[in-house]
Design a protein that fits this description.
The chain contains 22 helices and 2 strands. It is mainly alpha-helical. Strands 1-2 form a two-stranded antiparallel ribbon. A hairpin with a 2-residue loop joins strand 1 and strand 2. The radius of gyration is 22 Å and the shape is globular. The protein starts with a helix and ends in a 10-residue tail after the last helix.
Length: 485
Amino acid sequence: MINWRLDLRLLAYIELFIGILMLIPTGLAYHYQEADALQGFLIAYLAIAMFCSAILLVIRQPKSKAMYARDGYLVVTLTWIISTAFSAIPLAASGAYVDYSSAYFEIMSGFTTTGATVLPEIESLPKAILFWRSQTNWLGGMGIVVLFVALLPALGVSGALLVGAESVGPTKDKLTPKIKNTALILWSIYIGFSCMETILLLLGGLSLYDAVTVTFSTMAAAGFCVKNSSIGTFGSAYVDIVVTLFMLISGANFALYYKALSGKISSVLKDGELRVYLGIWAVVSLLAAMKLFSTNTYASFAQSLRYSTFQTASILTTTGFATANYINWPAFSQVLLFLLFFVGGSAGSAGGGVKVIRIVALFKMGRAQIKHRIHPRGVFQVRVGQTTFREDLLVSIATFFGVYILTGVVGTVVISLSGADPLTSFAASFLCLGNIGIGFGDVGPTGNFAFLPAWIKWFCSFLMLVGRLELFTVYVLFSKHFWKH
């Protein structure tokens, strides 16, 4: 059963919360005297006020505050869809974007931390609009609902189902007995790292505006930048190093940072997923740099390593920043980056994609099957670090990967209907589904999604949503069994 009254009232409260968060860019619009942007935000406030008033005044308090699994899936999915709808209004109403379809695509890309854009030119837009665009990255990185869960106890509702529906990865880390405290811990760590990166970028010569917006997108593993040439605009090795470091931080499991702060350093160092995650980044970066240097793409090995480590971290963590046009790199280096499309960050991170732990589990499942063929009566466990995977969890991982690939393939076919070439269609589909942001073909590091028709932008928005909520949170709503009492 679905507790409609409770769910709708929760949606209203969450949208009010989004409206409060919109006050920051509204203040910037007033400060920079950007009248069109200010008007866009005021129209958004009016729409939010009408929506929330209609629900809170018409729908009475629910008789029961009990939440069920269906409520969790429904509220989380609708939160992301409706929050994007209202948050896109300033972009369209200010005239900064050509139409609402483009604005919706951009904000869905922001909240889902994809970082894909429809903007062929960025720096001419109002600063307040670009700030809000980057702020949606940061809000989506740790999760809109996870941030809101801290307020739920005051409403008499448990947020465990909501966090579970929004969190990423095959396993969910509950750091404390109370889900509210877990949400507060995760967001505190997230904010702490964000402050650290902002300070380091300020020391690197960036303005406060640039430092904050870059931090928003780095910590969210997102990729929006207020510069046309992304991070490459700054032309600073120091900035590249700082951003690379924090991209890697955002792509790791945030539960590990809590363990480290709790004094469980040895447990962190023994984490199997973390080792593989950092190992993939190091090996791919080194191999790509060696090829770049041997083909004289860059003048020195140090310079080759600078660009390869950055771009490898950017795609592995699904951030989507760029400091170079890797389309001009040797084919070998491009293939290495392409393979990272099917990896992603760690479970419990801000990164998207399949997740490292699933990839490792799939490889180990394959190895176990080979051993089973040799020793049919043997029992072979799948372990990643100190974690042993149950049979039902392995089935879940295999199912997820299969549905993920199938969704990406179907997406490729649909996008190709727009007339896009096969490489562009494939890259656009999987970069949206994996929340990666940059790809190959016309959606490479110097490209964008502006050339696609409106209906394809809506479809890509759906792919981004499905990828961010890891398929089944959204797909379950399309099951007839979901709606049966």
